[in-house]
Design goal:
- One of its GO terms (cellular component) is cytosol.
- This is 2-hydroxyacid dehydrogenase.
- Belongs to the D-isomer specific 2-hydroxyacid dehydrogenase family.
- GO terms for molecular function: glyoxylate reductase (NADPH) activity; hydroxypyruvate reductase [NAD(P)H] activity; NAD binding.
- The protein is an alpha/beta fold.
- It has two domains: about 120 residues, 3-Layer(aba) Sandwich (Rossmann fold); about 180 residues, NAD(P)-binding Rossmann-like Domain (Rossmann fold).
- Helices cover about 35% and strands about 15% of the residues.
- The protein contains twelve helices and twelve strands.
- Strand 4, helix 4 and strand 5 form a beta-alpha-beta unit.
- Helix 1 packs parallel to helix 12 and helix 8 packs parallel to helix 9.
- It starts with 5 loop residues before the first strand and ends in a 10-residue tail after the last helix.
- About 40% of the residues are buried.
- The structure holds 2-keto-D-gluconic acid (8YV).
- 2-keto-D-gluconic acid (8YV) binds next to loops.
């Protein structure tokens, strides 16, 4: 019988994915080793594959500790924690899971947008604490027909735009590149987009060069009637500036699925009624996580059968 290829799994994955991995490969879980550093030093060269996830990633030092690894398969679309340049230098293939999560991530963008504008979570808290028996709930902000600015017109940005058109929203976007195959207006300047927009949804990739893109200046431009929604990466937003803007009511509210230092959320946000907070769950449906798991396995299988993963991460 053939020996199963040796796979190093860097962090925990869905139980169903772990079971399917273990059926086809000889899997070792790095996160389970008492001393991961010592383990890597002693046995790092035994592995030909590494499986990771978007939040865990794989950096240059870890790649170096795995000199025989030829393929990395990541659960997620985000590549900000994967050192793509280091992988490319070594000729390591990097598989990831784009497209299959576009719909669910865009759905959460709209969940957060509608929730914060219409004060749905706040209203729920109000009913639960018996507030309705004492007073009227305050009015909220209309969503339909409003101006939506999208930061990052990639796969997810476009899917957000599709949903927004169902709400008769006017759409413009900011992106490093002018995207030729969408009918929406491009704003070359992010503050200009924020000034125009009543809702600003962040759907850009994280990683080098994108840190703090949503700066104090951008938030100031969004203004006291403007709402921010972030379903991309916490690193894209100047979180301290966001907290201050929310506290001082210099923006109207925010819906956030991602944060700078997950799972830690700034204490100050917990006290505010004009924010809706979710724990990085935009892709977290049974259907989408299953599709992502399928693609993680497919990327590995394809690498062994054809020498390339099915969805190769672009080399930046
Ligand atoms: C995570 C994500 O992969 O795809 C991404 O980039 O951030 C998420 O889908 C997911 O939370 C699994 O950890």
């Amino acid at each position: 019988t053939l020996m199963k290829p040796r796979v190093l799994q860097l962090g925990r994955l869905l139980p169903a994915l772990e079971a399917r991995l273990a059926a086809d490969y000889d899997v070792t879980l790095l996160a389970q080793q008492a001393d991961p550093r010592a383990f890597l030093a002693a046995r790092g060269r035994e592995f030909v594959e590494a499986v990771t996830s978007a939040p865990v990633g794989i950096d240059a030092a870890l790649l170096e500790a795995l000199p025989e690894v030829r393929v990395v398969s990541s659960f997620g679309v985000g590549l900000d924690r994967i050192d793509l340049a280091a992988a490319a230098r070594r000729g390591v293939a990097v598989g990831y899971t784009p497209n299959v999560l576009n719909d669910c991530v865009a759905d959460i963008a709209f969940t957060l947008l509608l929730d914060v504008a219409r004060r749905a979570s706040e209203a729920d808290r109000f009913v639960r604490r018996g507030g309705w028996l004492q007073e009227k709930f305050p009015l909220a902000t209309r969503v339909s027909g409003k101006r939506l600015g999208i930061v990052g017109m990639g796969r997810i940005g476009r899917t957000v735009a599709k949903r927004a058109s169902g709400f008769d929203m006017e759409i413009r976007y900011h992106d490093r590149n002018v995207v030729s195959d969408v009918p929406y207006g491009h704003e070359a300047s992010l503050p200009a987009l924020a000034r125009w927009a009543e809702f600003l949804v962040v759907a850009a990739a994280g990683g080098p060069g994108s840190r703090g893109l949503i700066s104090a200046e951008v938030l100031q431009a969004l203004g006291p009637q403007g709402f921010l929604v972030n379903i991309a990466r916490g690193t894209l937003v100047d979180e301290a500036a966001l907290v201050r803007a929310l506290q001082d009511k210099r923006i109207a509210g925010a819906g956030l699925d991602v944060f700078l230092d997950e799972p830690r959320v700034p204490e100050a946000l917990l006290a505010l009624d004009n924010v809706v907070l979710t724990p990085h769950v935009a892709s977290g449906t049974h259907e989408t996580r299953q599709a992502m798991a399928d693609l993680v396995l497919e990327n590995l299988r394809s690498f062994f059968e054809r020498g390339e993963v099915r969805m190769q991460a672009p080399v930046q």
